[in-house]
Design brief:
alpha+beta, 362 residues, four-stranded mixed sheet, globular
Length: 362
Amino acid sequence: MSPDGSFKRVDAAWRNKISKEPGSMFPPEKNRYHLYVAYACPWAHRTLMTRAIKGLEDVISVTVVMPVWQKTKPDDPNDSHNGWIFADKTSGKVLKNTAGLGGPFPSSYPQNEEDPFCNAKSIREIYEMAGDKDGKYTVPILFDKWSQTIVSNESSEIIQMLNSEFDEYATSPDIDLEPEDLREAMQSVDSWIYPNLNNGVYRCGFAQTQEAYDVAIDELTAAFDRVEDILSRQRFIAGDQFTLSDIRLFVTLLRFDEVYVVYFKTNTRSVANSSVLLNYCRDIYQMARVAETVDMHQIKEHYFCSHPDLNKLSIVPRGPNFERMLKERHNRDDLGIKRPKISVSDDEKSSPPSEDSVVSSI
């Protein structure tokens, strides 16, 4: 937090690269790397989407942490850190928020797991086992199972690695989410969407003065309108082809109406009230394998229940059921046809996801 009350995000500290270059410390190999993620976290969601679209599910394993933050050293009364914890499949313990209120929350869900490699109880422990000195215990983590260390915790770089470095193992190697002819356009849109939308929602939500909030909401509103204008003229944010820039934008828009409008006070705009952006989100959500990376229940439970200073009793608003809206037919086909051609199994070809197969909002 800066002296003027504005939210300042700390940069990721682990920035190693998986590379096919000779002599690389971290070469691309099947079953060597692991992702620690949260369904709730938009930065982690970027990596889940990229992994799914490239067809790397059998190449890079995943563990999903629990959505509601807990004390990461509960036996130390002098330690105040709250953060991501792993599922506890055996105790049956009932949890509350970190102020001892709200809930009850279960200690595990079927889709969340215990740590399979380090027997850690929290994401913080993964960092400490790797010798971290930064103290920013975030997801996603790209983890090297062989050397038991963190490769990267910077989502924008992890998705680039997943896109380019594992094609010999991917089931959809022909999909290039960072094509050479669109890189300049991608860098251009990323340069203002990140500070004003991706991080802009946090700048609104965690502002500690009216002045800081007013600056953040003005910049977010202008960026929202700019995105809407661009997408009224072309199918995807960097042009006519789906790219990593669309993944970066989609994970924020997905959470916008259900969480950010209420929780982070971004109520000058709504995705549901924008035909352009709603249909853009439908287009992406309905791509093969994308819906299975979305868990709106855990998204909402994390945000509304992990910050007692913003929501003391962890009451989760019902919301507009935005995910149901995303299952309706979109109108984006007339703006271009370059969606990813994802290789799918016979089982996946049968039908779109049913109502029961996608977790809807609570």
